[in-house]
TrEMBL record, chain A:
UniProt-listed SMART domains: Biotin_carb_C
One Gene Ontology CC term in the entry: mitochondrial matrix
Taxonomic placement: Eukaryota, Metazoa, Chordata, Craniata, Vertebrata
Reaction(s) catalysed by this chain's protein: propanoyl-CoA + hydrogencarbonate + ATP = (S)-methylmalonyl-CoA + ADP + phosphate + H(+); butanoyl-CoA + hydrogencarbonate + ATP = (2S)-ethylmalonyl-CoA + ADP + phosphate + H(+)
Compartments, record wording: Mitochondrion matrix
Pathway annotation from the record: Metabolic intermediate metabolism; propanoyl-CoA degradation; succinyl-CoA from propanoyl-CoA: step 1/3
Molecular function GO labels: ATP binding; metal ion binding; propionyl-CoA carboxylase activity
Name of the molecule in the record: Propionyl-CoA carboxylase alpha chain, mitochondrial
Primary subcellular site in the record, as a coarse category: mitochondrion
Gene responsible for this protein: PCCA
Subunit organization: The holoenzyme is a dodecamer composed of 6 PCCA/alpha subunits and 6 PCCB/beta subunits. Interacts (via the biotin carboxylation domain) with SIRT4. Interacts with SIRT3 and SIRT5.
Domain ATP-grasp: 162-359
Organism encoding this protein: Denticeps clupeoides
Enzyme Commission number: 6.4.1.3
Length: 709, 545
């Protein structure tokens, strides 16, 4: 069966792309051979997925296709989560905090014994790169779907991995291969390498314990800070020093290796768009690499994998400078978040490959069979406020949620659904939105459409930022680096800046929507008492406020098409004017746009999401607008900084202390009354000034609980 | 008390009267010899009409605007569809001849109120709008007569009455005639109650006896910062009880929407209030003979709401927001909440299901665990009675741990007030659909539109627990003094903390998947649209007031 698959590979690759992108129902009926390949080998009967959220769901999808039973683990607050519902079996492994549930090895080992799972897929994060976990699994004869402990350990330590890489003839950043003893040695090494240099924690990650120094003084300072930070963050204060690559790109190579010494590179992923060292938008392939560089990087990645006897999927991260010099950064010994874009352009299912490899099967493909078909872009959709440091986490309940799966060539990897809670306990990622196209331009256009059609209500999300990045001229031309965001938005992200045309489109849409709602309000079904003598209106004079500007508009209607006059220009707006749909699809002078109406009220206030950013408008009749000059200006009263008990009860828990920063909607304390726990939440994002209650205390109605700044 | 009230009003009146005298020069300031026959009658008609349009004159209009308020006519124009207002009695003048009131410059065509009928989104409504620019909007015999005239006509044709209140009080100069005027209006308010919807929007002062007209109407709305309702003003309060209190604290919008429960909602300013009133009006039937209105609806009636399947927390002690349930079930998430800041442990308001107006009542687990107390019972009862009077189906979402215990509640008469809600649900003959989302404990279960009170369709979600009380309390009584309380509790939970005990007895009609709730309700409403039910003949019932 394997050989049959190999022969058909060339033909199937394109189909597999569709398969990975689209709904499997369509493809399995049209191309039964695609499914056949999943069923063709016997791997495991039952796999436990030691993770949550989108990646747990992602792994289960492939398991289901391969006919493998799945076991989910979950914390108590995740009992209703999508990954739990999706699994054939589910085991609760502890309370909400990750240290007590998803990182709780004892509980997870129990779950494995209890369910008889033969293998464990760790996803990413949590226990995915924990050699202890891998060891314990091995001891009980359970397969770990990932590399062996040796590779995890070797690549998990920055110093060791660099030494191994160097030995495997992988380009490494000029620097000191070892632990720096003290500040004096740091200065000496820094001078040998040449400034600027980077001082970083050996055990580090995520930007913690990392300092850039441009001179001796900064080196001494950096050494002190980094070692303190490293000690507190990782319990390991060992530091290393290396050349700092200015304005680098972050490009990584996906590798796949089996237990028989074979290894492949599956091309690159460009992950330069980052904020605070976390990736935001990724693409495959990279606009920057030429075939020679790609091959050189790929071959070095494979040679590193072979050097550590790597098996399973892994990622070798490189920094690439403007002259296409590339330097080894680190190797991630797990499935990466952004793996779907590689799947899209190669047609491989990486999870399937990992499972096969874990069972001991050799690789199915040769390097020559690995294609780059088309282009794939991934946007990480987060529950966070992009207007604050490019993204501060927000929490809440997804009151409305609709993925843009109505579009072709769109893949959404998510582990949430309408009604899910985005809580403070876990990563605030909502989903990974992947679009695919034959060309980069096609994939980008599709991403615009997908972001416009993505309905997320109830939490603040970063779609405004994603939507701006993908249309930025520098991004489109491929002129990017890891400093893209701070360079492009030095003052912080401020949302989409309207052009003159954009402003008119927005005004015309709001005015037309207002009129459509007004007309609908007059449609009473079967009511004989509605006036017959009153003429239906055909034209309106409206006043629309937008960003402190006031615009007089004339609107006239013919059927579902409105003609809006703004400053002498005429815009034709047509739509089905469905006032219940969160999406507002309009044609503006022949141009098709999808907006979203976030809210609309009787007072004429309309919130529209246009090109990703939310704009607040107010539409008034000419009369109401003229009279509004008499309305008093009101300063909104701020009661959000004081939290009082709404009822008599007992304080069960206090989740904050003075000096903490709380996010809007975050739980501050819990009051029990009538045997019910009432969660008191912050009305705004602020620092806690003082806490006036403690657990066990009885409070009366109106008692001061917590003050915010 | 009435004397005190009048004293307050009088003080106010005297001041205003003084101001009128010193600053106002009568608007029809042309020569007053009209003897040139027909043409001059035309001229006089025109002149009077023009005079009626400017009320108390430009200076007073400017002063009104300066206070952040619109004039009586501007308000009517914003409230009604363009060009739909038909005015009555623009030529009516007051008849007082004392204190110099008979002078021409003290007469204003139409006096201190604008009345008539018009349309809101094509539907008929009668309106009166008090004109503060004419004698501070004070109520003269003529003013009252104008209001009574439109109320009488509204009753005859069956159309709602909207009052835009902005009045300093009684017209002191007219004395008892003014008082008689109030009483005439009160009587009509009572007669119209339950016949046509009556709405009051307080847009300025409303003090003394005048407050009782809004109090008798179905809904009282206020404008923040510019409207006040009180029996006696701060001065009298100070002299009688020695309390220091501001107008705003005593009778402002915040006080009445959050503390006293006198007003049902407050709006930011005149424009905001009038535009919202138009929206609100669309929910209401025109009279007790008209069905609940049905508007064009774009929201599919069979829409599933997947989020509801996971909304109720697994632990029964954890709260959730009943508004999340309501918003996701009703058409287009459009819910016009009544009294959103008062007795928040119960949620009431209007929404639509497949286009048809419904009244929603829901316990709010997020506030005081959703218990029933004095205020929430009264709030719920009044709303239920409005719906029943005007053929609006009632949908009730139940998650109630019981009535709130304690001396404050018992001394306050929770028995008497709780009975009102029980009475209202029992008496109602409109379609009644009830969904038990979680707890339905004790007497409160009976009260909340239960099957036993003639609920038409009663559903339970799988998370429902219908029981006399929570497990802990029950076990303490059943197994008093015995060991093994924990086991007993587990047994109780197993037996009662689920929908089965109610379902096997037919006390709920079905156990439904929460995500299908919207679809079920829409279908049921269609079935129940022809429901006919009458209570035994009586002169009137005796609700436990």
């Amino acid at each position: 069966n394997g050989s049959k698959w190999d022969l058909n590979l060339g033909l199937l690759v394109h189909r597999r792309v569709c398969y990975l992108l689209g709904s499997c129902h369509v493809v399995t009926t049209v191309f039964p051979s695609a499914l056949f390949s999943f069923l063709s080998v016997q791997t495991f009967d039952k796999i436990l997925i030691a993770n949550r959220g989108e990646i747990a769901c992602r792994v289960m999808k492939t398991c289901k296709k391969m006919g493998i039973k799945t076991v989910a683990v979950h914390s108590d607050v995740d009992a209703n989560a999508v990954h739990v519902k999706m699994a054939d079996e589910a085991v609760c492994v502890g309370p909400a905090p990750t240290s007590k549930s998803y990182l709780n090895m004892d509980a997870i080992m129990n779950a494995i014994r209890q369910t008889g799972a033969q293998a464990v897929h760790p996803g990413y994060g949590f226990l995915s790169e924990n050699k202890e976990f891998a060891k314990r699994l091995a001891a009980e004869g359970v397969s770990f779907i990932g590399p062996d402990t040796h590779a995890i350990q070797a690549m998990g330590d920055k110093i060791e991995s660099k030494l191994i890489a160097k030995a495997a003839k992988v380009n490494t950043i000029p620097g000191f291969d070892g632990v720096v003893k003290d500040a004096d040695e740091a200065v000496r090494i820094a001078n040998e390498i040449g400034y600027p240099v980077m001082i970083k924690a050996s055990a580090g990650g995520g930007g913690k314990g990392m300092r850039i120094a441009w001179n001796d003084e900064e080196t001494r300072e950096g050494f002190r800070f980094s070692s303190q930070e490293a000690a507190s963050s990782f319990g390991d204060d060992r530091l290393l020093i290396e050349k700092f690559i200015d304005n680098p790109r972050h490009i990584e190579i996906q590798v796949l290796a089996d237990k028989h010494g074979n290894a492949l590179w599956l091309n690159e992923r460009e992950c330069s768009i980052q904020r605070r060292n976390q990736k935001v938008v990724e693409e495959a392939p990279s606009t920057f690499l030429d075939p020679e560089t790609r091959r050189a990087m790929g071959e070095q990645a494979v040679s590193l994998a072979k050097a550590v006897n790597y098996s399973s999927a892994g990622t070798v991260e490189f920094l690439v400078d403007s002259r296409k010099n590339f330097y080894f950064l680190e190797m991630n010994t797990r499935l990466q978040v952004e793996h779907p874009i590689t799947e899209c352009i190669t047609g491989l299912d990486l999870v399937q490959q990992m499972i096969r490899i874990a069972k001991g099967f050799p690789l199915q493909h040769t390097q020559a069979e690995i294609p780059i078909n088309g282009w794939a872009i991934e946007s990480r959709v987060y529950a966070e406020d992009p207007y604050k440091s490019f993204g501060l986490p927000s929490i809440g309940r997804l009151s409305q949620y609709q993925e843009p799966l109505n579009l072709h060539n769109v893949r959404v990897d998510s582990g949430i659904e309408e009604g899910s809670d985005i809580s403070i306990y876990y990563d605030p990622m909502i989903s990974k939105l992947v679009t695919y196209g034959a060309t980069r331009a096609e994939a980008l256009k599709k991403m615009e459409d997908a972001l416009d059609n993505y309905v997320i209500r109830g939490v603040t999300h970063n779609i405004p930022l994603l939507r701006e990045i993908i249309v930025h001229p520098r991004f489109i031309s491929g002129d990017i680096s890891t400093k893209f965001l701070p360079e492009v938005y030095p003052e912080g992200f401020k949302g989409h800046q309207l052009t003159a045309t954009g402003r008119k489109e927005l005004l015309a849409t709001a005015a037309s929507l207002f009129v459509a709602a007004q007309l609908r309000a007059q449609k009473f079904l079967g009511d004989l008492r509605v006036s017959n003598t009153q003429q239906e209106r055909r034209s309106w004079e409206l006043c629309v406020e937008l960003e402190k500007g006031v615009h007089m508009l004339g609107v006239s209607r013919s059927g579902a098409t409105y003609t809006v006059e703004i400053d002498g220009d005429k815009l034709e707006v047509s739509s089905d004017w469905n006032l219940a749909s969160p999406l507002l699809t309009v044609t503006l002078n022949g141009i098709h746009r999808t907006l979203q109406c976030l809210s609309r009220n009787a007072a004429g206030e309309i919130s529209l999401q246009y090109l990703g950013t939310t704009f607040k408008l107010r539409v008034l009749s000419k009369l109401a607008a003229a009279l509004s000059v008499h309305m008093p200006e009101k300063v909104p009263e701020d009661t959000s900084s004081i939290l009082r008990s709404p009822m008599p009860g007992t304080v069960v828990a206090v989740s904050v202390k003075a000096g903490d920063t709380v996010a809007e909607g975050q739980e501050i304390c819990v009051i029990e009354a009538m045997k019910m726990q009432n969660s008191m939440t912050a009305a705004k994002t602020a620092k806690v000034r003082s806490v006036h209650c403690k657990p066990g205390e009885t409070v009366g109605e109106g008692d001061l609980l917590v003050e915010l700044e | 008390m009435a004397m005190a009230a009048l004293a307050a009003v009088r003080r106010c009146r005297v001041l205003l009267h003084g101001a009128v005298k010193s600053s106002f020069r009568g608007s029809p300031s042309q020569p007053r010899s009209y003897s040139a026959g027909r043409l001059s009658v035309q001229e006089r008609i025109e002149r009077k009409r023009q005079a009626a349009l400017v009320g108390g004159g430009q200076k007073r209009i400017d002063a009104q605007h300066g206070r952040g308020k619109l004039t009586a006519r501007e308000r009517v124009a914003l409230l009604l569809d363009p060009d739909s207002f038909v005015e009555y009695d623009a030529f009516v003048e007051h008849r007082c001849s004392d204190f110099g009131m008979e002078a021409d410059h003290n007469k204003f065509p139409g006096d201190s109120v604008v009345t008539g009928q018009g349309r809101i989104n094509g539907r008929l409504v009668y309106v009166f709008s008090q004109d503060f620019t004419v004698f501070g909007g004070s109520l003269s015999g003529a003013h009252a007569q104008k209001i009574c005239k439109i109320m009488d006509q509204a009753m005859l044709v069956g159309a709602p009455v909207i009052g835009l209140n902005d009045s300093g009080g009684a017209r002191i100069q007219e004395g008892v005639e003014s008082l008689a005027g109030y009483a005439d209006i009160f009587l009509r308010n009572v007669m119209a109650s339950g016949v046509v919807p009556q709405i009051s929007l307080i847009m300025g002062p409303c003090a003394g006896g005048a407050v009782y007209s809004p109090a008798l109407t179905d809904f009282t709305f206020m404008v923040k910062d510019t409207s006040y309702l009180f029996i006696t003003g701060p001065d009298v309060v100070k002299s009688v009880t020695n309390e220091d209190v501001t107008q705003e604290e005593l009778g402002g919008a915040k006080t009445h929407t959050a503390v006293s429960g006198v007003a049902h909602k407050a709006f930011e300013n005149d424009i905001d209030a009038l535009l919202n009133l138009r929206e609100f009006f669309n929910f209401l039937p025109l009279s007790n003979k008209d069905p609940s209105p049905v508007t064009e609806c774009h929201d599919p009636s069979d829409r599933l709401v997947p989020g509801l399947d996971t909304l109720v927390p697994l632990e029964s002690t954890k709260a959730y927001d009943m508004l999340d349930v309501i918003h996701s079930i009703v058409d287009e998430r459009d819910f016009f909440e009544i009294m959103p800041n008062y007795a928040k442990n119960i949620v009431v308001g209007f929404a639509r299901m497949n286009g048809r107006t419904v009244g929603i009542v829901g316990n709010q687990p997020k506030v005081a665990s959703g218990c029933l107390d004095i205020n929430s019972s009264v709030k719920g009862a009044r709303f239920v009675r409005f719906c029943d009077a005007f053929n609006v189906p009632i949908i009730t979402f139940v998650d109630v741990p019981g009535f709130l215990p304690g001396t404050a509640q018992e001394y306050g008469g929770i028995i008497r007030h709780g009975a009102k809600l029980l009475y209202a649900f029992a008496e109602a003959t409109v379609p009644k659909i009830t969904i038990i989302t979680r707890k339905a404990y004790g007497g409160a279960y009976d009260v909340m539109s239960s099957k036993h009170l003639r609920g038409d369709v009663n559903y339970a979600w799988p998370s429902a627990e219908v029981a006399v009380m929570g497990a802990k309390g029950a076990v303490q009584i059943i197994f008093r003094g015995k060991n093994n309380q924990a086991d007993a509790e587990a047994e109780y939970v197993e037996k009662f903390a689920n929908p089965f005990p109610a379902a096997v007895r037919g006390f709920v009609d079905d156990i439904v998947v929460p995500s299908t709730t919207r679809r079920r309700i829409c279908r049921d409403l269609e079935v129940l649209a022809t429901k006919k039910q009458t209570n035994p003949w009586k002169k009137h019932a005796n609700v436990p007031l």
